[in-house]
């Protein structure tokens, strides 16, 4: 059996790594690892007009955050350096010219204006947008002859190189996930392979790179199915063996529309900034269109990457686009937080809020109070802000000044051993002695101490704040 080699090939034309690309990367990574193969990262940066500054750096940062590190890098650049298509232009030109020489591609000199007019006419007639093949017949009835093309090239006319698709027959392939897929050649466009700026299009570059990098399995999203026959023709024209294709589902919104930034956060950096854990996201993505034959170690949907590698099979992925539900992801992230041991969770919280430089001692003490209440790391500070700063505003107006708080301050001043149990006992005794309505009394205390109607456990919070600070906060309402 030949060695397994997979790849993820994001394009730096967006803000960051798309969550759909994270899904594709995960499948490629797992399949390579479970077969003792190699996982490769390749940056497809040939569309120079759409490049976003800093996008490549953010993509690589996100892949490292998820732990989806490549097993192979170019000879230069060091570890974690990806292959870049922009650094391989001579290779693409070489094979484009080889296709022209064989008559499997041709020079096209059509101007953008002519192509735009052609598309408008096709649209008005209800025809699919395809190149009409004018340059196939340029100066000769034999499309393989370079005579007329060479004449125009010497005049410095701008040109592209197009794939010469046969107008008869079919092109077919077997997809691991979807079975046999077939396309009529007459419906396949004469795709541009090499642009006038010397850069290849995706269709040429992806085939050349996948072949030279010995990619055994091309695992990508279903949106590339319609492009696959073009790629197969290039493989066949160059005499190269085909890789194995597997087209997974596209992630969708709960309303079944395609996952897009108009309806859902799609960039990996957003999830990191919101305090999602990478292992929780990967676990959730693993369930998109696939489910293990056995549940995770605790009998739930929670399972590790190692557990997934034991059971995962490409052919078990369902081709129907799964719904990406943010609320379900939040639930799963909360499950991961609850399973995290306190020292590790403290380190994660401190790192998440590193710019705020939260006191480690306070974070350590508050984790047991909030661990069951948060779903994301970003939920921590809204719940615990009052530990670090006195409330600037209160959810309930405590004026006119309640004598209850004044009496509580005096009563708590007598507590020598400042623990949650002793604090609670003292307050209960005061309520009983004065005949206060318990719910009103404790709500007033909670508001005075935390500023909010809902907070972490009150007695434990008061213990962490300390006697002096608690009494100061109570006194602020009657001094």
Secondary structure elements and pairings:
Elements: E1 5-8, H1 19-34, E2 38-43, H2 55-66, E3 83-84, H3 89-102, E4 105-108, H4 112-124, H5 147-154, E5 160-163, E6 170-175, E7 179-184, E8 192-194, H6 202-212, E9 217-221, H7 228-237, E10 244-248, H8 268-273, H9 278-286, H10 305-311, H11 326-339, H12 342-352, H13 360-370, H14 380-388, H15 403-412, H16 420-434, H17 438-450, H18 458-465, H19 467-475
Parallel strand pairs: 1-2, 2-3, 9-10
Antiparallel strand pairs: 4-5, 5-8, 6-7
Record keyword descriptors for this entry:
about 45% helix; 3-stranded parallel sheet; 4 domains; about 475 residues; Glutamyl-tRNA Synthetase, domain 3; Rossmann fold; 3-stranded antiparallel sheet; 19 helices; 10 strands; Glutamyl-tRNA Synthetase, domain 2; mainly alpha; about 10% strand; single chain
Walkthrough of the structure:
The chain has about 475 residues and is mostly helical. It folds into four domains: about 5-75 and about 205-250, HUPs (Rossmann fold), CATH 3.40.50.620; about 90-200, Glutamyl-tRNA Synthetase, Domain 3 (Glutamyl-tRNA Synthetase, domain 3, Alpha-Beta Complex); about 270-385, Glutamyl-trna Synthetase, Domain 2 (Glutamyl-tRNA Synthetase, domain 2, Orthogonal Bundle); about 390-475, Arc Repressor Mutant, subunit A. The protein has helices spanning about 20-35, 55-65, 90-100, 110-125, 145-155, 200-210, 230-235, 270-275, 280-285, 305-310, 325-340, 340-350, 360-370, 380-390, 405-410, 420-435, 440-450, 460-465, 465-475, and strands at about 5-10, 40-45, 85, 105-110, 160-165, 170-175, 180-185, 190-195, 215-220, 245-250. The strands form four sheets. A three-stranded parallel β-sheet has the order 1-2-3, covered by helices on one side. The protein is elongated.
